Amino acid sequence: MLKQRPDILFLVLDTQRSDRLSCYGYPREISPHLDRFSQSATRFSNAVAAAQWTVPSHASMFTGLYPSAHQVVQSYSVLPPEIPTLAERLSAGGYYTAGFCNNPLVGVINNGLRRGFYSFLNYSGLLTSRPNQAGLASGWVGRYRQSFKRLLAGMLNQVQDSFARSELLLALSFSPLMVPIWQTALSFKGNTAKSLNDAAKLLIDRPGLSADQPAFAFINLMGTHMPYHPPRAYVERFAPHVLRDKAAQHYLRHFNGDVYGWLAPLAGSLDVDQKATLDGMYNAEVAYQDAQVGAFLQALQESGRLENTLVVICSDHGEHLGEKELIGHSISLYNELVQVPLLIRDPAGHFTAGLRSDVVSTRCLFQTMLTAAGLASEAEAALSLAQSPDLARRIFAEAIPPQNVLNLLQKRQPELVKAHACDQSRRAVWIGSHKLIETGSRLELYDFCNDPDETLDLSDIFPENVELLQDYLQGFAGESLANLTPDRAPGFDDPEVQRRLRDLGYLED
């Protein structure tokens, strides 16, 4: 029994695929520290991100809403002021709220996702900044220096904001001349070690916190995001051919510098050597980040702080590494992008250690953390993932094309836009063991339990299943999403609907 409200640690492993963690079945030992942590946590085997890329996915986790409800779906979007964030709710409830962010789309761009944080440290950007932090400077010299840094950081943030919102500037930033400049100047992947050290100091030493005040720490790590530059020891272990093969080195250099290539579909399949290079380098980054996270968790364990900390570890989305002729995370709703790792360790005992196989949405992490803090409404508490699994629950995801990226694709490779329907919004629904993806008029049905790689489209084989799931998608699109509850679809309790679900294998007698 906890004596006080728990600290909450929300760790987002940006761009981490679930199938590249050993605790999720990857055959190589790639993540021993997260594997060890998972043994005392609830491991969700079918966690689904609400969106396929950083901005809308984080906005869903921060608000508890799907993308079409919160409307933060573009790099230039701003969260409406009437929608409260997780940090705002926790701060109003007495939590000390701190962010340690390595993704410039969350920590630098002024899109409203920083709202509610008393302290927010950016480790990416032209200058590491503390936009929400106060009380650190002492004396007139300290105040002057802090004011100057805030002014300079504000000016630089405006420049970075402009690149996110301007099609012309975004196109310029993808030019061969600019790419190496902004990758270096923006510290594109941030500083994993420093962000974890700073977060550990807050949670262990508690500077600035009043007695018995609980803390909320949000951390975003970018270790597994492109470009790939892991330490040599990890390359030697997971991609040794890259250290010896000139062709692999040439391909990797080109890939790391081709930002447009991170966004565009492939014109054809990767060859075996290219695929091996991307897989190996991605795996090396996963293993390196795992070691750093492991040291961080060990420090918290040794300090005793984990005994009163709700720990939520997840990803905002995964990554295509050539599968289905796709790279990056711009457009699809395939499992490579939206089936993400989710581990929850709860000192209060509301989550049982072990595997949970029901399908859940990461957007419900908002309600889950509010419930753990004792700040959720009755309706919000009903959506907490601590509730008993509901096999009848239907889960949705949305992929709304990033407009600036789409404009570039249409100018450079309109044939690929057409071939992959890059200009079409996608929606997906999960219920029972099936998943339906709707892209315009195209429908794809998969058995995600028995075919996680989505190799067999069942839409022609089970048209009744397609019809039923499409009805759910149409209802999803037509509902007032701000009031959406995922527990049961409209009309779910109708006896005829129940019969159809049972006949199709979605419900057990």
Labels describing this entry:
disordered C terminus, 20 helices, 509 residues, Alkaline_phosphatase_core_sf, alpha/beta, Alkaline Phosphatase, subunit A
Description:
The chain is an alpha/beta fold and about 500 residues long. It has one domain: 3-Layer(aba) Sandwich (Alkaline Phosphatase, subunit A), CATH 3.40.720. It is about 40% helix and about 15% strand. It has 20 helices and 15 strands. Strands 1, 2, 3, 4, 5, 6, 9, 10 and 11 form a 9-stranded mixed beta sheet that branches. Strands 12-13-14-15 form a 4-stranded antiparallel beta sheet, with helices on one face. Strands 7-8 form a two-stranded antiparallel sheet. Strand 3, helix 5 and strand 4 form a beta-alpha-beta unit. Helix 9 runs parallel beside helix 13.
